[in-house]
Specification:
With 404 residues, this protein is mainly alpha-helical. It is built from 15 helices and 2 strands. Strands 1-2 form a two-stranded antiparallel sheet.
Amino acid sequence: MNIPALTGVRGFAAGWVLLYHAWLVVGAHDLSLHVIGIPLVLTPVVSMGWFGVDVFFVLSGFVLTWQVLKDGPTPARPAQSSFGSRYWQFLRRRILRVFPAYYACLSVLLPLEYFHRYGAPPELRDVALHLVMFHNMIDSYLQTINGVFWSLPFEFQFYLVFPLLALMLQGRTALLLLLGIGITAAAKIVILIGGPHGATRLLLNQLPFRLDEFVVGMVAAKISHDRPMAAWKRSALFWIGGLSLLAAAQYYGRAHAMWWAWDAQPLVRGLWVEAAVAAMLIGLSGEGNLGTRLFGNRAMVWIGTISYSIYLWHFPILQVMAMRMADFGVPISFRAVLAAGVPAVLLISALSYYVVERPFHASAAGKRQDAPTRGAWQISNTAKLTAWGCALLALAGTVSAMAG
């Protein structure tokens, strides 16, 4: 069951992250806007644009759980097939949704980096770990190819454990919430005790550090599904959550908070943001309120539809735009980078979605069988994706051998 407003939230999150990175590209200057002669300071909200990733994670847990509750048998619900079979089918669908656009981005950025046109050439091992979204296992590989790729292992590794967590949705929702928050709190406490040096720092990049965000989204979906609410209650939850999220951005933005600090701040901030986003999503999963109209309109839904490609492509595009502007002596400003970069981001992201993502989505959604059907030369999308990854690895190996 598709809820347009939730797709619109993806567009909102992608746009917030894009604004944040545009702000970083131009030097993180103070931003303000004059409305009827009144100065409106934008810096706190824009500087906390990385909250958009938190929104993505909570939303991911919400949407996957909503599908479990609405669409029938999945790896987490009884069915005639074995759990192992259903687990693999779930994982295959997720792989076909997230890897094609990701490989398309890698297919462009890697050659540019090998020819020193963008960034530095990555090591072979770096590329190999990126290809399976496990580059978070080595701290120095997190942002080597594309600055936004650091977040992808969290999402993919959540897919690996989601079917197991979803088994707890039947009557053990409170335990699931405590488990997710408890594991995350334990990971953060271990990191705080270990300090900024040593092996504990690696935990900052592992799923337990963010598991609570996904689990809060799962529990929010369960609450929304199981407890019918009047339209006014959902509307109230939307506004409470939305204003709370804005308040968190204002508060932490004015304090110049980083995503991690060696104190209790990340624990408190995480719970604040997660609760705010969860309330928003519960409010938007109903009908007939202003929130659903704001996020469910055609423009927001379209941006949300291509939001994954927007997320993958926007940072290198903004960086390249700023570099080209500097080469031609064009003054670099926040507005100028947005004016030049946003149309390019939307165009390339739309191409990525319609040419790359959507054909694989059809197979992932079960609209077409992921197997040869019409001819001896037709191969499955899973095989195509595997061959694509092998080709990228072969390219990296060839370049490494020539450089050695």
